[in-house]
Structure formats: C-alpha cells, structure tokens
Q: What sequence folds into this?
C-alpha cells in the first residue's frame, strides 16, 4: 500500500549468509549504529541468499541482503549498494592470502605461487559466472587456467615443479572463494602438488591456518571484514599476499527499490 514502509515490505528482515561471515558481523553492527532496532538479520548461506534474490527479482519484489563484490549477482541483476554514511562496512577491502606458520620452509614452491597469486575482478567473474551457469567449480577453474596462461605464468614465475607434495587449502562456500580456491588448486596440481580443498565455516577456516591443520587460505578479507579473526589469531598466521584490491561488502538491494541509504530503513 501507499503508506507501507520499506521495513513493512520486507517484514523487517535482511537476508544474510553464514553466521561466521564478516559481513554478518558488520551488519549486526550496522543495525546497532543506525538504530534499526526493529530489524532482524536472517542467517542462511550464500546459495540460499542468491536463491531468495532470484525469487524476489523475478517478481520485482523488495529484498535487502548482504552483498559483496566480486560476485556474479552484479552481472546477472541490476543491483545497488545502500549508502553507508556511518562507514560501518569500511572502505575498499582487499582479499588476502594467509598461510600457516612454517609453510615457506616446508613447501617453498607452494608458498611462492600462493604469495604471487593476484587477479582482477573480471578474471574471477569469468570463473564465478561459469560456475553459476552450471559448470562444476573444478571444470570452470581448469578452463580458466587453460585460457589464461599469461596470468598463470606470472604466479608460477620462479617456481619449480614438485612430486606429490601435499597441500591443503581451506575456504568457505562463498561464490568468490569457491572460484579463487579452485583456480589455485588447479594451478598447484599442474605443478605436481597433491591438493586438498576443504570447505568449512569462516571461524574454523582461520583456526585451521592458525593451528597448522591447513596450509593456506585465499579467503581472508581485510582490513575490516575479517578483522575479528585477524585480531584473534594475531601472530599465529602469515599474511603472504594480496590477490585482489578494491573489493567491497554492504547492504544491497535491486535497483527497482526506491531507497538509497541504510538511513532510509529507519
Ligand atoms: N564475504 C565473501 C565474506 C568474505 C568473502 C564477503 C561474504 C565475509 O563476509 O566474510
């Protein structure tokens, strides 16, 4: 109806993802700082969130959700971030590669590739879209690696092949990290490593790097998104490279919604 508020139209719910994600912590903080006391952040998963987005979008219904880029959803739908005048979601974020202590000594060649890993939002977007359109993550990754020998050559510069050294990468089932982790897995495999990709929640992912049960993760978003984890495990992991800059998290809505700022949710 005409007098219906945005809150009424979405039942005061923000569609979230897995509870360990940094964007969930940031959103709880946003609800406090913007005094959105009536609002609830609903926990779920990346897959459930994008399914809810598709459902709403197809009917032009309102939805407010925890978005980030790089993500294929911005290629597929017309979306916008809500302005965040209080800066709760930080400025430009970066994706970092973190490793367990001792990786450099134990697996110098893996360490070198991981620390040289760097790609663009468009690169990652190709892999993500391919997966979204139905390819298996490992197939999409293999295709990208085959189609991008120059990039792979930069990451593997000065790296020697090995014979069956075991490397364990850990990640969370975020679309962006499914893409990056599978690509790196393929690159390491091509170098002769026996690679295991272990999918866990964000807390266990950071814990595995800190206690050495996993070798590396490409899924650390800093400085803000994973600040709590970085502080908790300070001194127990190594930050060995930045794979992407200028990434972002924030509350996101379809462009057909008539709001522009988190303050409009009041
Ligand atoms: N994300 C994707 C993660 C980091 C990568 C933005 C959903 C998070 O919020 O922790």
A:
């Amino acid at each position: 109806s005409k007098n219906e508020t945005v809150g009424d139209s979405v039942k005061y719910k923000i569609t979230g993802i897995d509870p360990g994600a940094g964007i969930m912590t940031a959103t709880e903080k946003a609800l406090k700082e913007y005094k959105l006391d009536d609002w609830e952040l609903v926990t779920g998963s990346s897959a459930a969130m994008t399914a809810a987005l598709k459902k709403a979008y197809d009917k032009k219904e309102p939805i407010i959700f925890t978005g980030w880029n790089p993500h294929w959803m911005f290629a597929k739908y017309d979306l916008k971030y809500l302005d965040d005048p209080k800066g709760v979601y930080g400025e430009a974020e970066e994706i970092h590669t973190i490793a367990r202590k001792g990786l450099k000594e134990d697996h110098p060649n893996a360490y070198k590739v991981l620390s040289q890993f760097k790609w663009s939002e468009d690169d990652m977007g190709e892999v993500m879209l391919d997966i979204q359109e139905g390819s298996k993550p490992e197939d999409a990754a293999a295709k990208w690696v085959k189609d991008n020998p120059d990039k792979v050559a930069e990451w593997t510069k000065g790296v020697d092949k090995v014979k069956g050294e075991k490397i364990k990468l850990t990640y969370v089932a975020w679309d962006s990290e499914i893409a990056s982790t599978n690509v790196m897995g393929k690159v390491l495999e091509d170098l002769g490593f026996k690679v295991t990709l272990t999918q866990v929640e964000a807390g266990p992912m950071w814990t595995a790097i800190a206690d050495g049960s996993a070798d590396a993760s490409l899924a650390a978003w800093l400085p803000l998104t994973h600040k709590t984890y970085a502080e908790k495990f300070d001194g127990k992991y190594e930050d060995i490279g930045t794979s992407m800059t200028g990434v972002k998290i924030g509350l996101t809505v379809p462009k057909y919604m008539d709001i522009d700022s988190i303050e409009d949710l009041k």
The first strand starts at residue 13 and ends at 15. The chain has a mean pLDDT of 97. Strands lie at 13-15, 40-42, 65-69, 79-81, 93-99, 166-171, 194-199, 216-222, 238-254.
